[in-house]
Design a protein that fits this description.
Blueprint (H helix, E strand, L loop, with lengths): L2 H11 L14 H13 L8 E3 L4 E3 L9 H6 L7 H6 L3 H17 L3 H9 L2 H6 L6 H21 L4 H8 L12 H10 L12 H14 L3 H9 L5 H19 L9 H13 L4 H22 L5 H4 L3 H20 L9 H10 L5 H34 L5 E2 L3 H9 L3 E2 L11 E5 L14 E6 L11 E2 L4 E2 L4 E2 L5 E2 L13 E6 L1
Parallel strand pairs: 3-4, 3-5
Antiparallel strand pairs: 1-2, 5-11, 6-11, 7-8, 9-10
Helix pairs in contact: 1-6, 2-20, 5-6, 5-8, 8-9, 10-17, 13-15, 13-17, 14-15, 17-18, 19-20
Length: about 500
């Protein structure tokens, strides 16, 4: 990797330096719990108990992720938060290598590839997050880049297929990449036998699961995820995928004409039932997918079609298509779920106004990172204030849960009634489970500081915006489709009651 690329990676990380000390927030909490499970029992990390859907149960039943990130984080659990976040940076270097080589292969320029594939807002947010997303993205880019080149050389592709297969050890979405390992040698008219190496990591993990738990975790989680498949739920997930693609994953900034404009209009119409702001993000998502639609519809003999080899078009389109199908099968949507399928859409985008697109994308990523840091610190400050009153029980999840469990508090199960005299800490935003708490005696109540007005909010009830899912907490779960917007409601509100 040359000096210019190294400087680019440094430039990507530098604006995030002040966010390194933010407390754990949102889904980081459950991966830290899983890492504690790996530290206590490396062979059975999913045996650790967690209250993640209102009921305390083994993580095997409720955390639908493989243990790769738990094994990565377990050795550094005793480190300060900022050091743990720095521990994630080697994955950025691997992602940078993959981005450069994919750029060389599909765009003819490695530096452009690095810019296109590393300045996405969701990539920036994932860089120092204590989540499996950075490893997943890095292994996907590097494994795919190395495998593509090796197949074209005609030798040495099996080790790269093996590396690509490790994506499924960080998130099971890596399994959706397997068909691509067989498709690429097929369109290149090369032997496909080395592609079977892509299944080895998952096969070993499945054998481990049977030995450790008596069942295969990915199969158990398949049933866990397959609960949102009504037509209305599919429509909700489809619109969410579109708005998150255009609003937080791949931001298009080019002349909207022809099919570009048509795709933008279609995106807006699909998002229309969810409001004006969603229409705008739907238009962005439609415009981002416009090159995919055009590549399918474009006559094979046109100049534009000739500019990209047929094998490349088939491969990138299939990669993007697998991503869309996979996202529709999940229980809920989140912007970061696009990560293993970001590359084909970004590489297919036309070159109109690339500097504007990349500047907007990088700037938005930095602003969302700042908002996320304020959210995490606000929630952490409220949890610390609650913990200063003593010990007790709490409802709610995310960083709120991590902070209070770290202070010796315990989660209250769904529907439970605390003993008289027990302190109960209750947030408004961190997805509190329903419990039998009267809260007649409020010991303390407060809210996190108000947000900075010009920062985009990645989680806000007033804006109906949520980057992390297509639902948010409340008296009743509320559907969302917008990944971010501007709002003035407090990041969090909490109270501590004495029963």
């Amino acid at each position: 990797m040359n000096r210019r690329i190294a400087l680019l990676l440094l430039a990507l990380v530098a604006p995030l330096a002040w966010t390194l000390t933010r407390p754990a927030d949102f889904d980081e909490a459950n991966f830290l719990t899983l890492a504690r499970g790996a530290l206590a029992d490396p062979w059975r990390p999913h045996n650790i108990l967690i209250n993640w859907q209102g009921t305390t149960e083994p993580a095997f039943a409720v955390l639908s992720n493989p243990p790769g990130i738990a094994w990565w984080l377990a050795p550094v659990l005793s480190w300060p938060t900022w050091a743990m976040r720095l521990w994630m940076l080697p994955w950025l270097a691997l992602a940078g290598w993959g981005a450069v080589n994919l750029g060389k292969r599909f765009l003819g320029d490695g530096e452009t590839g690095a810019l296109v594939l590393l300045t996405s807002p969701i990539v920036i947010l994932s860089t120092t997050a204590l989540l499996p997303d950075a490893p997943l993205y890095a292994v996907t880019l590097a494994g795919m880049a190395g495998y593509i080149a090796a197949v074209e050389r005609g030798s040495g592709s099996a080790p790269w297929a093996l590396l690509l297969g490790f994506a499924a050890c960080f998130r099971y979405s890596g399994i959706a990449l397997w068909p691509l390992a067989f498709l690429w040698p097929f369109v290149q008219r090369r032997p496909a036998f080395p592609a079977f190496a892509v299944v080895i990591p998952m096969a070993l993990l499945a054998a481990h699961d049977v030995a450790a738990y008596g069942k295969v975790h990915v199969f158990a989680m398949g049933a866990f995820q397959s609960v949102a498949n009504t037509p209305a739920e599919w429509g909700h997930k489809a619109v969410t995928a579109l708005t998150m693609l255009g609003g937080a994953v791949v931001l298009p900034a080019y002349r909207w004409r022809g099919q570009h404009a048509a795709a933008a209009v279609v995106g807006a119409l699909l998002a229309a039932p969810w409001g004006f702001v969603a229409m705008g993000f739907g238009a962005l998502g439609g415009a981002a997918l416009a090159p995919v639609v055009e590549a399918i519809l474009r006559p094979a003999g046109t100049v534009e079609a000739a500019a990209r080899p047929a094998a490349d078009r088939i491969f990138l389109l299939s990669w993007a298509f697998l991503g869309v199908v996979f996202l529709l099968t999940l229980r809920f949507g989140a912007a970061r779920y696009w990560l293993p399928f970001l590359a084909p859409v970004a590489l297919l985008l036309p070159g109109d106004s690339p500097r504007l697109r990349l500047a907007l994308s990088f700037g938005l990523g930095v602003l969302l990172a700042a908002d996320g840091a304020l959210q995490a610190r606000g929630s952490g400050a409220l949890a610390a204030r609650a913990a200063s009153l003593g010990t007790g029980t709490f409802v709610g999840h995310w960083g709120w849960q991590a902070a209070l469990e770290g202070a010796g508090w315990s989660a209250l199960d769904e529907g439970a009634t605390p003993a008289p005299g027990t302190l109960v800490a209750i947030p408004s935003e961190a997805w509190p489970q329903r419990v039998n708490v009267r809260c007649d005696h409020v010991r303390w109540e407060g809210h996190a500081w108000p947000p900075v007005p010009w920062l985009p909010r990645s989680y806000s009830h007033d804006a109906r915006a949520n980057l992390h899912a297509n639902w948010m907490a409340g008296p009743a779960p509320t559907s969302t489709v917008v990944p971010w917007w501007f709002a003035a409601d407090a990041y969090e509100h909490a109270r501590v009651c004495e029963e």
